[in-house]
Structure formats: structure tokens, C-alpha cells
Amino acid sequence: MRLKLREWVLLSLLFCLLYFFFFMDSILTRRVTKKATNQFVHLQMQVQNWHLEEKWRRFQEEPNTIVVLRILSNDLPPLHSSNQSLLNTKYILEKEKLPSGFKRLWVLNSIANKDKEKDLVELLTSHGEVFDKIPLVLGKSVTAMESQALNPNAGRNKGIVRGFRMGAKWVVVFDGCSFVTKESYDTLSTFLNSKTSASFIFHFIPMVRLQHKVQMNSETTYQHSFPYTSGFQECQLAVSRLYLHFRNHVSYFKRQKGFLFDERRAYANANKLQLLVDIKEHLNNRYVHCREAMIGWTSDKSDAASKDQSLISKCGYIIRLPYHPDDRSPIEQILLPLHRVHFRDRAKNNFVKILKNLSHNGTTSKKKLS
After folding, report:
1. Residue 277 sits in a domain of what CATH number?
2. What stretches of the chain show up as alpha helix (H) in DSSP?
3. What is the pLDDT of residues 76-120, one digit of tens each?
4. Does any domain span residue 262?
5. Residue 99 sits in which domain range?
6. What backbone torsions phi and psi does residue 156 show, to the nearest 5 degrees?
7. pTM recorded for the entire structure
8. pLDDT value for 293
9. Among 43, 250, 302, 335, which is least packed by CB within 10 angstroms?
10. Are the beta carbons of 166 and 103 closer than 8 angstroms?
């Protein structure tokens, strides 16, 4: 009996020793593993931070690009033809020539018709263009879908941020169907690349609307297009890289819901106009170049192109392409402000009906949305 007890005690002691060594080995292993893991994570973070710092350093040292940003949104018949975005985009890609140091960036902004979105993607891809997509989120309420699909300011803000990340010193924010001739690009390039422009935050670009379907190309002059255009309308906007610093020091811009354009303002709710008005109200000539450009509805047309020469020679100009560029539409497309409001309201109501069907069905086709 004593021998068995002694053996039992020895076995117990042996078991305790084995357990102790196993336990200590486990602790040491965990410590070594944790230390190695921490060292690896620290090294990985150092590498990542180095890449980020290097990328940011180059980004800051080489802001030598001017990015031309265009927003492609939903076609809204009867205000637009059902394929105006595709036709006008194709026209711009074929006829417009960018100066050296300029890059184009397109934003496909919450397009409801996936077939049309696909056609635009294929067109832009075939021309080697840079573009971003903001997909329309399905399955939400009709009101939420409308707020997203008819919100050009969300696309503008996304595009401006992307433009600066591309190394832009200026981002020129155009609506999708804005055409720029060589004459205008030369003026824009001269100013935006000058030392003078470095002190400005915004540059206003006068805009006229093409009221007749006439052929233009890069060599078209303001004098040549003058008989076929409207008086000056709501100008377009260029944003300097200086805004990245400026926006954090002016309370007005800090209150904006969005990077620059207020995303609470949807289509047809002074979404761009209000920003232009506020810029003129809050900032003086020191920060806004060409602030004399038209920012309201439509001005009376000048008697002759020569009377506009001083303005466009200083600021450049945009020619807004027709709402109805398709072959079946009339050549003359003069649309008075009151008529435009009427067609716009009809178009919005029609589009809301489309979104209701989309909300119920969950799919879209070109036939349904044309």
C-alpha cells in the first residue's frame, strides 16, 4: 500500500512539472508571437505610411494639371431628348481638343437606366477617358431615390475631390453637355497656368446656350457661333487647389453639406446658382476672378459678338449643347425661361413615375426609361 502511495505521489509531481513546463512554454510562445506580430504590424504601418507620405509629397509638389470635370446625369424627357447625354458626350469626344496639361474627368451621377449607363461607360472607355460612377442605390423609398438621382451637387463634389487627388491645381466644373472651343481653351489655359491665378480661389466662366443645331468643332470661334446662341446664362465654375486650405477657415463653407456644392439642394432648386450667388456675396475680387460673369437666368443678348469680346477674352466661355441633339428634333431650339420651367417640371414628374416603377420592379430597361 505504501509503495502504491509513493508511486501516486511521484506521478502527481511529474504531472505537475509537465503542466508547469507546458504552461511556461505557452506563455513564452505567445509573448514571442505577439512581439513578432507587433513588429510586423509596425513595419507594415511604416511601409504604408511611407507610401502615403510619398504619394502626398508628390501630390503636393506636382499640382500641375487642370482637370475638366463633367457631370453626366439622368436624361429628363421632354426637357431633354431621351439620349441627349450619350449624343452630346460623343460629340464632345469627337470635336473637342484638350490643350496640353488638361485632363478630362467624367462622373456618371446616379443614372437610373442601366442600359444607358452601360452605353456611356463603353463610349468613355473606348476613348480612354477617366470616369467615376455613383451608382443609384435601389430598394430605397421613391423619395430617397429621387433625392439621389436628381442631385448633381453630389457628383460635382465627388468629381472635385477626385480631380484634386489627380494632382489638379484647378478643377473646372462643367455640366455634361458643355462644349469648349480652342479659342476658349486658349484663354482658360493662359489664365489658369499664370502666376496671377495662384491667388484666386474661383474663376467664373461665362456660358451661352446653342439654340440651333449647327455643326461646331474645336476651331469654331465665338464670332462664328454668335448668331446661333442665346445671351449669357448661368456661368460655370473653376475651383483652385487653394480652396483645400481656404474651406477650413471660412464659416460659410464649413457649414456646407458637401465639399463645396450644397448637397441639400437638388436639381431645379438653385443647386449651382445659390453657390455662385454666395461666392459673390462672401468673397471679394481678390478671390474671385471674372466675377462679372452672368450668374442669373438669361441676360439680354448683345447686339454683336464684338461687344462680348472683352469678357470672353478675359474669362473664356462655354457653349451649352442642345437639349435635343437627335436627328428627329427641330433645328431651332429656342427655349424661353418660362417654357424651360414648364418642361422641367413635367420632366421631373415623369422621372418620379419611372422611379416608382423601378422601386416596385427593381430593374430597368432602355425601353422603360426612354
Report:
1. 3.90.550
2. 2-61, 84-95, 114-126, 142-149, 152-165, 182-192, 222-225, 243-246, 251-254, 273-282, 309-315, 337-361, 366-369
3. 999 999 999 999 999 999 999 999 999 999 999 999 999 999 999
4. yes
5. 63-344
6. -60, -45
7. 0.79
8. 94
9. 43
10. yes
